[in-house]
Amino acid sequence: MEESIPEKIAQVRQRINAATRRAGRPASAVRLMAVTKTVDDRRILEAAHAGVDILGENYVQEARRKIDLMGRPAEWHHIGHLQTNKVKYAVKLFDMIHAIDRIEVAEELDKRCAQDGRIMKVLIEVNVGGESTKQGIDPENVLPFCRQMSRLDFLSVQGLMTMAPWFDDPEAARPYFSLLRTLRDRIREVHIPRITMTELSMGMSGDFEVAVEEGATIVRIGHAIFGARPPRKEM
Q1: pLDDT value at position 227?
Q2: Which domain holds residue 135?
Q3: Rounded to two decimals, what is the model's pTM?
């Protein structure tokens, strides 16, 4: 019999706690995000009721539908590529935006937040593997980008986000997570205004334990909670 969503969440938390112990970190240092892309509404609510306090959505329009339906049983974070024309909606929907990698998007977000009179927490996405198929800033450009971001009054840069290259052996992802932590620490030392660098959003279902050992503060978990995504329907 397949385990329930609360059982799967409990197992993920146990693995997070074991990883924090190995790293000498408190379990409270890591927050669990349930990635809700393509997930049925009922199952999302089940995860929230089981104690998940961050729900991560890739698409603004899908988040809008889900939030209209189920409200805010947890924080909603945007974790996908944010298009400039969707920023006006994202400002009203999300508690944090994880994947800022273009100054044009950041400037539009800042403008919309100013209009709404709110500060938006954001993370800068870094392409640690230099993969052409992934979004994100090259590691050597992160510090200059932070300096650009610091002039935007209504954005609060909380840290960095990445997707490590995929490996059969999660241990192979360790250098990429370590690189992100090193980048975060270097930026902290510079003390740039509005750049606090407390968060590292890294690690997914296949490699989150290694990410936690390397300093992740938010792990983004999809299929380890909800199972494999359903196959796409042919149009």
Answers
A1: 87
A2: 5-226
A3: 0.94
Residue 24 lies in a domain: yes
CATH at residue 147: 3.20.20.10
The owner of tokens 């006006």 is 88
DSSP per residue over 185-227, as a string? HHHHHH--TTEEEEEEE---TTTHHHHHHTT-SEEEESHHHH-
C-alpha 130/C-alpha 139 separation (Å) is 9
| 98 part of a folded domain | yes
Q: How far apart are CA 105 and CA 110, in angstroms?
A: 9
Compute φ and ψ for 138, nearest 5 degrees: -60, 140
Number of domains composing the chain: 1
What would the pLDDT profile of 46-67 be if each residue is shown by its tens digit? 999 999 999 999 999 999 999 9
On whether residue 233 sits in a domain, the answer given is: no
Q: Is 137 left (phi over 0), alpha (psi -120 to 50) or beta?
A: beta
Q: Residues near 143 by Cβ (< 8 Å), separated by ≥ 6?
A: 186, 187, 190
227: left (phi over 0), alpha (psi -120 to 50) or beta: left
